[in-house]
Specification:
Elements lengths: L5 H21 L29 E5 L12 E5 L4 E10 L5 E8 H4 L2 E3 L3 E4 L3 E10 L7 E10 L4 E10 L7 E9 L2 E8 L8 E8 L2 E10 L9 E7 L7 E11 L3 E11 L2 H30 L36
Parallel strand pairs: 2-9
Antiparallel strand pairs: 1-3, 3-7, 4-6, 4-8, 5-7, 8-9, 10-11, 11-14, 12-13, 12-15, 15-16
């Protein structure tokens, strides 16, 4: 075999270095067991399951299994009576739980607890007695409120419903109906002394027929006596050009019923502006043409600034000819 050429001898070190680098890249990484220990000498392990915040619940006591538990505290009584119930606080975590209890809302202000602060051991359920005293001057009907349990990071609200004995009156009104683009705004007011669950029906009529017809449906709210709620009804397919009348009808159990309406005119802004400019331009052209035709028909002079064909032609200055008579020389006759 012939000896390598000088060029090949110079390229051999380069090729050897490249081959060594390639082998280092392809070499297997060290095993995870060979990884260095933590700085404090302990092994790096994942946190144990269950070290996070403890789970807990608060709900009305009794009712058997969770799926059969009462959804809210329900009490009935006449003005001046004290009604009893219990609240169950369940701590399913691994550490003790401390919660604070308070009432909120109209009926919540009537509630007193056996203890405002309760500490529940791990994996334990505690039942806290509560007493609701109906004021002597309470209006017969329904009242609502909430029991609030707070652990300092989160809170759980338990609804409270109270039926106060005596004659009840269900009265509901719909007020301040407004139409704004694709939104219908209105307000509901409970004018009676009974807790109401209102239902709403919406209808909109335009110049050429019905544009919107939504049948009666329940609203996701409970209206306490004397309460006013402002709501909106979306209308995403509102017309672009029409004159409409929107009618709202609300009902509630107990014979409560009311209706209200509002009107609006939909006019597209950009086409209206463009159409107005076109009309103004057309009127200007029409007026200018009529003026010129009238001037031509009556033989009136052209408007100022206009030149006639004769004014544009060159002119020569002429002088009148004077007829010469006989020439008479002054002087005496010889």
């Amino acid at each position: 075999m012939s000896p390598p050429t000088p060029r090949l001898r110079r390229a051999l070190p380069v090729l050897t270095t490249a081959l060594a680098a390639l082998l280092c890249v392809l070499a297997p990484l060290p095993a995870a067991a060979d990884a260095p220990a933590a700085a404090d000498g302990s092994a790096d392990t994942a946190p144990a399951v269950g070290d996070g915040p403890a789970d807990w619940t608060a709900r009305p006591a009794g009712g058997g299994a969770d799926r059969e538990a009462r959804p809210y505290v329900y009490l009935e009584g006449t003005p001046g009576t004290a009604l009893q119930d219990r609240l169950a606080v369940t701590n399913s975590g691994r550490a003790p739980l401390t919660v604070r209890l308070r009432g909120d809302g109209r009926a919540g202000a009537w509630i007193g607890f056996a203890a405002d602060t309760v500490t529940v051991p791990a994996r334990t359920r505690a039942e806290v007695p509560l007493a609701l005293t109906v004021p002597p001057d309470a209006v017969p009907g329904d009242a609502s409120g909430e029991v609030v349990a707070d652990d300092g990071e989160e809170e759980i609200r338990v609804p409270v419903r109270v039926r106060i004995g005596g004659p009840t009156l269900a009265a509901l009104t719909v007020e301040d109906v407004e139409i704004s683009g694709g939104t219908i705004r209105y307000a509901l007011v409970n004018r009676g002394n009974a807790l109401l669950e209102p239902r709403l029906a919406v209808r909109a009529d335009g110049m050429f027929g019905t544009l919107l017809d939504r049948p009666e449906r329940p609203l996701p709210l409970e209206l306490a006596p004397g309460r006013r709620v402002e709501r909106t009804e979306p209308w995403p397919d509102a017309p672009a050009l029409d004159a409409v009348t929107v009618r709202l009808r609300v009902t509630a159990p107990g014979g409560a019923r009311d209706e209200a309406e509002a009107s609006a005119t939909y006019i597209p802004v950009a086409p209206a502006v463009g159409g107005g400019l076109l009309v103004l331009g057309g009127l200007a052209l029409f007026g200018s043409g009529a003026y010129r035709r009238r001037c031509t028909r009556r033989g009136d002079p052209e408007p100022p600034g206009a030149e006639s064909a004769d004014d544009r032609q060159p002119t020569t200055e002429t002088r009148p000819l004077v007829k010469a008579g006989p020439l008479v020389k002054a002087g005496a006759e010889s």
